[in-house]
Amino acid sequence: MKNIDPSKTEAWKKLQQQFEEHKNLQMKDLFKEDPSRAERFTINWEDFYVDFSKNRITEEVQTSLLELAEECGLKVAMDAYFGGDVINRTEGRPVLHTALRSPEDATIKVDDENVMPEVYAAKKKLSDFSQQIITGAKKGHTGQAFTDVVNIGIGGSDLGPVMVTEALKFYKNHLNVHYISNVDGDHVQETLNNLNPETTLFVIVSKTFTTQETISNANTARDWFKKTAPGDAVSKHFVAVSSNLEKVGEFGIDQENIFPMWDWVGGRFSLWSAVGLSISLAVGFDQFDQLLQGAHKMDEHFKKEELRSNIPVQLALLSVWYNNFFKAESEAVIPYTQYLQKLPSYLQQAIMESNGKSVNRNGKPVSYETGNIIWGEPGTNSQHAFFQLIHQGTKLIPADFIGFKESLYGNKDHHDKLMANYFAQTEALLMGKTAAEVRQELDSKGMDREEVEKLEPFKVFEGNKPTTSILIDKLTPESLGKLISMYEHKIFVQGVIWNIFSYDQWGVELGKQLASKILSEIDKSDVSNHDSSTKNLLKSYIK
Ligand code: F6P
């Protein structure tokens, strides 16, 4: 991979100049001037219709952004990424979650060895196991079929599976799937309260099998289980997904009930592996495989499509444009389906843990902004919560609007209303409302002149707020796979441009280390050296 400071490139200089010239450009004028603007900035690919014309770009800016990608060596980096080079250099690993959804006959090498046979062996194991649990062929220790599955994991070992299981609820079978992530004992207890140990299967997901939250929760679940079951029944009710075979064995899980994880798959990109076991149990392996196939289709699009009509590339470049030139700090993701309610939290980890870095690939501080803040909630709920700030606040918040042409239960009346809001919001954010329009509206209601003048400034909408509309035919396992993969590649492209290492997460370590030190102080009721604030808080807690 090239190691280039983006701010020193020719394209960056051009973009800086273009930003100065165009920063006050009104998108509605651009639409008026160019009747084919919408077509020009729309990518139609398979069941995805991605319209990014409501963004503050011109063709000139788009070209400079593409030049920036070229100058930063995006194509070389893509080859390194898909080819299994050690691009996660601070951890000495390749980044190959894309191998998990590649066809069986592909050859993808890690340390000179093709990983595809072991990927497919793991898939077979996942498929067989899911089938046995769903059909009831595999039973609990008292001979009853399983009714409930509890996934215990955190971060990438939770967010991907819980987001996808929620998103694919429509396709679910009879198994009730629960997720325990937080080390908050109340969260664990609330879940266990409603479960029957004889019909519950626990899936402990932890790549390292040392994560404090997951191991504590797994121990609590095992203690709860053992209250009513003999010790040797644990092996029938507990399975693990991990790369730490030794620790899993110590916990009491049979080797045959361990599903593998690999070093070359990062936690936040692991839902495609056996980490997705709870997804496969919830919807069946075939639907899980459809998810993988969708992701693979997006991988191919990303790999092969020229950069100008490449969805992840365009999304990443727009984000760089706002982040680095407009200095927009955050981006909103607004899915117009309740099924995707967990997508923003999932993307928070994927994006912020990946690109929340402030040193470049030489280990030197960057002189430009990197990872953005991601947030969001489904529409229309979010319209009644935070949209006021997007419309009339002081901050520029580019937003992705994700909508579907069809609803799953086919309630057309509701779906039309939902989608009318989807379209209306992006139009309102683009067009705003001028003072003249406000006056005319109030006049037509018969309001007196003085009152109209007083109200007018509060009712004006500036407009010119950027949005990208991602309109997909239908929420299916395949389209969801494409959507997730699209964001994964967007993350990659941004990391390449910002010249940072997107696949490590050292920033989460310090808090973990301090927490274990503080825990031993709490255990001993002995508060040692801390800043006075932390010391007082601890003393107050221990009392
Ligand atoms: O939050 C840090 C992190 O390392 C994530 O990257 C990872 O997804 C999570 O912890 C869980 O790790 P593990 O799967 O090893 O329990």
Automatic annotation (TrEMBL):
It catalyses: alpha-D-glucose 6-phosphate = beta-D-fructose 6-phosphate. GO terms for biological process: gluconeogenesis; glucose 6-phosphate metabolic process; glycolytic process. GO terms for cellular component: cytosol. Its EC number is 5.3.1.9. The keyword Isomerase applies. Pathway: Carbohydrate biosynthesis; gluconeogenesis; Carbohydrate degradation; glycolysis; D-glyceraldehyde 3-phosphate and glycerone phosphate from D-glucose: step 2/4. The active site is at 353 (proton donor), 384, 512. InterPro entries: G6P_Isomerase (IPR001672), G6P_Isomerase_C (IPR023096), Phosphoglucose_isomerase_CS (IPR018189), SIS_dom_sf (IPR046348), SIS_PGI_1 (IPR035476), SIS_PGI_2 (IPR035482). Keywords: Cytoplasm, Gluconeogenesis, Glycolysis, Isomerase. Catalyzes the reversible isomerization of glucose-6-phosphate to fructose-6-phosphate. Belongs to the GPI family. NCBIfam families: PRK00179.1. This is Glucose-6-phosphate isomerase.
